[in-house]
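idk why but the lab printer keeps eating my pages so im just putting this in chat instead. protein + zinc ion:
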Amino acid sequence: MKNIDKYLSLLDREVDGLLLTSRYSRHYGAEFDIAEGVAIVTRAGCRYFTDSRYIESAQKNIKGFEVLDVNQFTGYFQRLNDAIRDFGVHSLGYEERYLTVAELMGYEQKLNAKLIPFNQPIYGLRAVKEEWELDLMRKAQDIADKAFTEILAKIHPGMTELELQAELIYCMYRNGAQGLSFDPIVVSGPNTSLPHGVAGERVIQPGDFVTMDFGVLYHGYCSDMTRTVAVGFATDEMKRVYDVVLQAQLAGIAATRAGVKGCEVDAAARKVITDAGYGPYFGHGYGHSLGLEIHENPGCNTSGQVPMEVNMVASAEPGIYLPGKFGVRIEDVVIFKADGCENITHSPKNLMIV
Ligand code: ZN
Ligand code: ZN
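predcted complex ->
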């Protein structure tokens, strides 16, 4: 099913048009990424507006929309009001998750249609992925896996976290990344107890854990993976904690299949960590969905009450973080299937000492 047809299926009940303002929702509907623009979707017609910086690419690549430019004489409000008149629109569903208050006030003052908050239906469509979307995510993950293989040979005592981060980013682009799905997390030694620490000038030393959480963009779709490796040697405590995190992740993955609630997947992994005595040191959720954005819904966390469906996607990323000492996180991305899941992350997970 084309994404534009999914959008059209939302119409006629509460709203007779959609006002797509976020880059993600425009990308989803047009199946092509344009940095700036606005789109309107109605049963009578669909239009996509952007300015001179993007208009040539938009007209060439966007299918299913009439693509028109905005300029100093004809702005977005006029283009939208023309479409509202031409298509007989009375009410437009908008994305309250992404609009600023000022932007919403502008639309409310200037548009000749009633505006209705409609983020959940618009955003919710993205939870179940089409096969072609999953292929782009598999490709993004393949690039990240290749980058990880290459970075293993480059980690050495004496380099700083920032130097390692630079090498990691280079490896991702060299292997085909079109962008980064987020700023990588590259932390070492005691900094690994910070789940979302930021790379700094700390020099990597023998006996450190190094945690790298990173992802690439491929045609707008995100990958996400984390590996924690030891430099030179690992103490018995480091090995024990690493093994608990790995067993927790494997338990979560074993519980992953369509029909199971996100909180049940989280609970399967969390039980392993709690039983080992580290419960208080696993403060975040087990996993989040992703796709065009690095964090999407529904998530596999303690509040995940939604039964997961075939071709939903989630990260599998338990961690243990011991303040002042070290932390471990291992993250893969899996696709929910009827009888289990497909793990699209292929890098090894045994404790590696580099
Ligand atoms: Zn991650
Ligand atoms: Zn993640």
